TrEMBL record:
Taxonomic source organism: Gimesia aquarii
UniProt name for this protein: Glycogen debranching enzyme
GO biological process, one term: glycogen catabolic process
Pfam family, one: Alpha-amylase
Presence of the UniProt keyword Hydrolase in the record: yes
Presence of keyword Hydrolase: yes
Family: Belongs to the glycosyl hydrolase 13 family.
Ranges for domain Glycosyl hydrolase family 13 catalytic: 158-566
SUPFAM superfamilies cross-referenced by the UniProt entry: (Trans)glycosidases, E set domains, Glycosyl hydrolase domain
Amino acid sequence: MGRELVHSLSSPIHSMHTFSYGAVPQDNGVHFSVYSRSAKAMWLLLYDHVEDLEPSEVIKFNQEYGRLGDIWTAFISGIGPGQLYHFQADGPFQPEIGQRFDKRARLIDPYAKALAGNFQPSPDGIVRPPKCVVVDDQFDWHGDRHVRHHLADTVIYEMHVRGFTNSPTSGVENPGSYLGVIEKIPYLIDLGVTAVELMPVHEFPMNEPDGSFTDHQNYWGYETLAFFAPHRGFATNPEPGAQVREFKEMVRALHEAGIEVIMDVVFNHTAEGNENGPTLSFRGLENQVYYHLDQGGKYYKNYSGCGNAINGNHPVVREMIFHCLRYWTCNYHIDGFRFDLASILSRDRSGNLVPSPPLVEAIAEDPLLADTKLIAEAWDAAGAYQVGSFSHMRWAEWNGRYRDDIRRFWRGDVPTLGDYATRLSGSSDLYQQTGREPFHGVNFITAHDGFTLNDLVSYEHKHNYANREDNQDGENNNISMNFGVEGPTDDPAINGMRERQIKNMLATLFLSQGVPMLLSGDECRRTQRGNNNTYCQDNLISWFDWSLIEKYNGLYRFCKELIHFRLCEPTLRQRKFLTGHSDGVEKLPDISWFNVMGQSVDWKQDTHCLLSILGARHSSRRVRDGSDIMILVNSSPDAQAFELPVGIKPKEWNLTIDTSAQSPLDIFPKRDGATLHPRVSVLPARSLRCYVRRDTRR
């Protein structure tokens, strides 16, 4: 395995104690540090080339001079950025108490800043994972800073870096890459989104541990190998470490366009899987610390549904997560993080859900993260559901209640009218009692896991056979409706109703208080052919089909203008919860609810129809913050006449949105649509209208 070098004053290796983990380039060499409490010996393996099966040098850490507490350190002279390496650790193999050291295993540095290559086949059956790369973090940011949009003014676009441009229809020079995203920034600007939420860009496997490639890749990326490293598969340059530069170029370009970058981070499990999985990194360094273990340590607790669960509230693991978040914030200028299955972070070292968990509270209070957006997916795969109660701090949450209630209302379920009104007005039932505001709820109707918006109105059942799991994977309760035909159809009436329903849900999303999140492609009816769990589909099923922009240009225009309408209307982006009161004489209350007779709503008796009026708030006696907005909704299969409430003057209100109309009469960017019909307005089946009141004082 190469020659073994031992620490000595005359050798090219010098002991050096530091609190910087991983591989840190310094003058004339690189300093390495790795944590292991239980290891009896530690080695550093150096490689000359990515494809090398064996290291060119094997260097043993000196226990006497190279270990400070539980940190193994060494300074290696004569190497620098670009150097490839692994760790190797020897210690007890006692699975019954959670010890799983394997001195033969090559280990990924938990603090590796880049990986190179893939899993390699091994004649001795020992997994050879991608190699770690020593990285120089220097980069010319051209003065770039965090964008710092207020959360209330944010429109999030959830996207997959590869899937966004990998289709041949994208027309970019660098498909499926960080640089490909740069080429599509003009599109994002035109659409109007203020932030992209990137599905996992931490390093994850590109092939199988035995070295083989399959057509069922880990496309989504929720199988982390290295938390500090951007995914090498999204870079165009194959040179080790090139992904670091290209990722930063993407962030810099998005910031120049005023678009924030939010990362989906997976601090809940890793690619090492359960007790039958490969030893790749954490398991071979300190298994008892990094994971939640069961039955004395022999098995892994599986709160993630993916084989293992990270022990995030162990002090050592908590420190690693902090270092990671700070590193991406400071070194990559990341603007925020969406925490996948964040309820696992609320579990203590025994796996119990606890109030004010140390990690969750500390992240919210960390001074270096004070400008970042923190978004929790406030549930896990073991039954925890904390939407509305994840934290009383500054955490925002994916509002799963919003998704379900809006779907049920537009499907026509009863009783859902009160739920619809609550979600439209900011979900005070979830966030107000914990001292948070409407913008702490991230509203969404679709996301990467589940149906796309097109499929939500085209399929009543999942069609996941391409995943080769006999259609057993994925969610069964989709709250969807196909309007008479499962999947595509040539029936113009069904297609017309499907598009109307898409508009209804898009309009609801962007008219609601809170933070809207749009799934990439929903603006142009992207379909996954009824597959609601495309985690393994790195193909046309998942990729953005750019020809749809032209095919459904009317819908794209509708969505785009909705976003711009929202961003121009402070009334739709309140910082405080609505109260139902007015802020002055002869001014409308900030929210009012009426039934079809123009009278107060009976939340127990009224079902499908609702008229709501949002009154603009006033920052001073003469200046209004936004416009008065009237929203009429009818989720029933029949047309419904609405009588205007007393005091509402029809001619003062101009039509702005009408989901029942064809483009371009479905939205009026200049707010110059027809005025309300005197006293009575008839709303077609399953439709929404929005009117804006002209300010006669301007």
